[in-house]
Amino acid sequence: MTRIPLSLIINGQTHEVLAEPHRTLLDVLRTDLGLIGTKENCLEAECGVCTVLLEGAAVNACILLAAQCQGRAILTIEGLAAPGQLHPLQQAFIDHGAVQCGYCIPGMILAAKAYLDENPEPDENGVREALAGNLCRCTGYQRIIEATLSAARALRASPSSACRETAR
Amino acid sequence: MTFDYHEPTSLREAIELGARFGVDGRFLAGGTDLMVQIHRGRLNPRHVVSLQCVPGLDAIEVDGAISLGARVTHRRIETTTDFQGALRALVEGAEVVGGHQVRNVATVGGNIVNASPAADVVVVLLALEARLTSLGPAGERTIALDGFGTAPGVTVLRPNELLTRASFPRLAPRTATAFLKAGRRRAMEISIACVAARLTLDAALERCQDVRIALGAVAPTAMRARSAERYLEGRPLTDEVTREAGRIAATECRPIGDVRASARYRALLVATLVPRVLARCLERIRFHTS
Ligand SMILES: Cc1cc2nc3c(=O)[nH]c(=O)nc-3n(C[C@H](O)[C@H](O)[C@H](O)COP(=O)(O)OP(=O)(O)OC[C@H]3O[C@@H](n4cnc5c(N)ncnc54)[C@H](O)[C@@H]3O)c2cc1C
Ligand code: FES
Ligand code: FES
Q1: In chain A, N or C: fewer CB atoms in 10 Å?
Q2: Could you tell me which CATH class the domain B1-49 is placed in?
Q3: Mutation for A interface: B2, B52, B101, B188, most A CBs within 10 A
Q4: pLDDT one-digit tens code per residue, B96-150
Q5: CA of B244 to the centre of ligand 3 (A)
Q6: How far from B276 is each of B179, B181, B197, B205, CA to CA, in Å?
């Protein structure tokens, strides 16, 4: 199978890769670029562990072709905060004990970020609904919801803490 | 699984590619059905033709007849102000499709062409008497949505034809719409049964002047509950009458039993959801005309 050259803008940086046209963004992120913060599980858009932001919107990287993402800004968990720093969502997840095995967390946090970007003053139901596409087998969700609501408050209090908005 | 990827930048080019590849090609919109089927090995296209750079497929028109471009996402429907009133059923159908990640990319056109009997937005569009426009090498044609799907996953669209939009007439006065879906959980769930209705009341706001009821996941394709519609026309919409309409709809649907529910339970859901959907329409008409 012939490979095609792709130019992907990930976390503000342009990456040139050669990939077969049927390969997903998830596969290219993990295999070619070593960005393994984006997780892999169902490969059917059911569980949300592969969530990345495409032009600010949460999408499942497991059903998105890398070829479809050319020239469109992609944010993965690695680009959420500057190296060595934590985004308020990451900090809130730690503070609230919202992380157990951690496998669902990158997707969970990016889905939460997309939601908070559009809804800076969310209520609990809104957060639950926004995270419906992200499954967690450990935490029981309650602390994840609390952490997200708390991060929303932190972001409102200090919007500048919201990182380099690399890919938006 | 392997294929060539194409990204046409005009309708003409998209149709040319569709014609060239015929049954070996597939159009790709949000990929939430197509990519899953490819991953499962159920589909194995040699060519995937992405519609993402084809202009003119993502418009929502609301002057005169209402029209949804094939590439309009469920998310766009949810957030369209014009649909928050009498056309609320569209929002109710779109907002229950998958989670945010799915709705951000999944499209109306994909929902229609995929032809699942449980496609939620299709059920709403059926109650709105939508017509589809398709474009192929032989030109444009319009196809009634009713009858477009012929079996699960099968439609009358030709392999090289592109669906461009779904349109339906503007609502009459004293009209409202509603949609309800039953699943095993509240989110990320394929319908066990779903019902959409478009109801128009008479001038006294008491009797049914005109009604369309569509059912999902209870037959090989989305279907109209025509006997229930006929029964309702001209009748006052009392609880007793809407319950009877539900019972009639339950007898005309043809559900199967599967992992999600038994056939009998699906029919019971139809009997329950039809009066509830009608009650919602009634409430909405009275609210908007008072
Ligand atoms: C986790 C998950 C949950 C889901 N939940 C629901 C749900 O609750 N309710 C529901 O109804 N659906 C649900 N779906 C199914 C799916 O999301 C919808 O049917 C969606 O609308 C499909 O749109 P798409 O743009 O992703 O289609 P695609 O996958 O891109 O395409 C689907 C089919 O249509 C064809 N096609 C697409 N656009 C065109 C066009 N313009 N012209 C000709 N052919 C075209 C493709 O070739 C393909 O065969 C779910 C899917 C997932 C993965
Ligand atoms: S791996 Fe993509 S949604 Fe599960
Ligand atoms: S923390 Fe383990 S899956 Fe969510």
Answers
A1: N
A2: alpha beta
A3: B101
A4: 999 999 999 999 999 999 999 999 999 999 999 999 999 999 999 999 999 999 9
A5: 48
A6: 9, 11, 10, 18
CB-CB under 8 Å, A132 with B188: yes
Yes or no, beta carbons of A115 and B100 under 8 Å apart: yes
User: pLDDT (tens digit, 9 = 90+) per residue, B147-196?
Assistant: 999 999 999 999 889 999 999 999 999 999 999 999 887 777 889 999 99
Would you state the pLDDT for residue B185? 78
Structure confidence at residue A40 as a pLDDT band (50, 70, 90): very high
| Sequence-distant contacts of B244-252: CB under 8 A, at least 24 apart | B245/B213, B245/B274, B245/B275, B245/B278, B246/B270, B246/B271, B246/B272, B246/B273, B246/B274, B246/B275, B247/B271, B249/B195, B249/B213, B249/B215, B249/B225, B249/B274, B250/B274, B251/B227, B252/B225, B252/B226, B252/B227, B252/B228
Which parts of B72-119 fold into alpha helices (H)?
A: 74-78, 88-94, 100-105, 108-114
**B175-289 CATH, one of 3.40.225.10, 2.40.128.120, 3.30.390.50, 3.30.70.3490:** 3.30.390.50
Ligand 1 atom index nearest CA of B103 = 17
Quote the ligand 1 centre to B127 CA distance (angstroms).
Answer: 20
| Residue with CA nearest ligand 3 atom 2 | A101
Nearest listed ligand to the Cα of residue A45: 2
CATH 3.90.190.10 is held by the domain A88-160 = no
More confident residue, B176 or A168: B176
CA–CA min distance B227, chain A (Å): 37
Q: Which residue of B has its CA nearest to A114?
A: B100
Rounded to the nearest angstrom, the minimum Cα separation between B90 and chain A is 18
Ligand 3 neighbourhood includes A137 CB (under 6 angstroms):
yes
What is the reported pTM? 0.96
**Per-residue pLDDT tens digits for B191-218:** 999 999 999 999 999 999 999 999 999 9
The fold adopted by the segment(s) A4-79 is Ubiquitin-like (UB roll) (3.10.20)
With cut-offs at 50, 70 and 90, classify the pLDDT of residue A161.
low
Residue B289: band (very low, low, confident or very high) from pLDDT cuts 50, 70, 90: confident
Provide the residue ranges of all domains of chain A, joining segments of one domain with +: 4-79, 88-160
Q: What is the pLDDT of residue A168?
A: 41
Domain ranges for chain B: 1-49, 175-289
